[in-house]
Amino acid sequence: MIIFDKTDLGRDQIKTRDQALAPRLRTLLLLVDGKTSDDELLKKVAGLGLGPEHLDELRQAGLIQVSADRSNTAAMPASPSSNAPPPPSSEPVLPPGQTQFEAIYHFYNDTIKNMIGLRGYSLQLKVERASSIEDFRELRQAYLEAVHKAKGDEIARSMRGRLDQLLFLGEKTPSSSTQR
C-alpha cells in the first residue's frame, strides 16, 4: 500500500490549470489527498479506465509524491501474524476529525469550485445555506447535472459515486438508473 500526496506543483495545477492535463488525470489528481491508499484511489476511478500507470504519470510529472508521513509504513509489508487492521470494507471512512456533515460540505465546495467553476456560484450559495444532511441530499441532483454539463458523463458518474458514499453513509444509495 502506497499513499500519495500532492506536491506544491500538483496543488498549483489544481488551482491554475497551468499544464494541459487530461480531464481524467485531473480527476485522479483531485482525489489524491495524502490519506487514501493507491488501491483505494484506483477503485474510485476504475470507471474512468485509470490504472497504476496513471498514478505513475502524475508522479513523473511532479504533481504527486509518496506521502512523507506515511512513506515508512507504506513501504513495510504487513506480516501475516501482525495485528494489522482488517481490509477496508465497502463502507467509506470519513476523513479524520470530520463529521459526515463537514465531509459533505467540503466535498461540495471543493468539487464545485474545481469542476464547475463560476457557473457553480449559485450552487455554492445553496451549500452555504445547507444546515442538515437532508439539505445536502436535496442538492445532489442539481450538483450532478451541473457536473455532467461541465465535465461530461464519466466525471459525473465518478463524482456521483463519491458523493453518494458521503451522503448515504451506511445506507442504501439511490438507484443509479433513476438518477444521474
Fill in the keyword field for this structure.
180 residues; 2 domains; two-stranded antiparallel ribbon
Distance between the termini: 32 Å
User: H/E series, N to C?
Assistant: EHHHHEHHHHH
Q: Hey, roughly how much beta strand do the residues contain? A: under 5%
Helix count? Answer: 9
- Unreliable spans are 70-92
| Mean pLDDT level | 78
Reported for the largest beta sheet, the result is:
2 strands, antiparallel
Gross geometry? globular
- The level of helicity is 55-70%
Biased composition (Pro residues): 83-94
Protein name: Proline-rich protein
Region (Disordered): 71-94
Describe the model.
Helix content is 55%, strand content 3%. The chain has 180 residues and is mainly α. The protein folds into 2 domains: 4-75, no CATH class; 100-167. Helix 6 (100-116) runs antiparallel to helix 7 (121-129). The longest helix has 19 residues, at 133-151. It is globular. The two termini are 32 Å apart. Residues 83-94 have a biased composition (Pro residues). Residues 71-94 are annotated as: Disordered. It comes from Paraherbaspirillum soli.
Short description:
With 180 residues, the chain is mostly helical. It has helices at residues 8-16, 23-31, 38-44, 52-60, 71-75, 100-116, 121-129, 133-151, 153-167; strands at 4-6, 64-66. A two-stranded antiparallel ribbon has the order 1-2.
List strands and helices in order, with pairings.
Blueprint: E1 4-6, H1 8-16, H2 23-31, H3 38-44, H4 52-60, E2 64-66, H5 71-75, H6 100-116, H7 121-129, H8 133-151, H9 153-167
Antiparallel strand pairs: 1-2
Helix pairs in contact: 6-7, 6-8, 6-9, 8-9
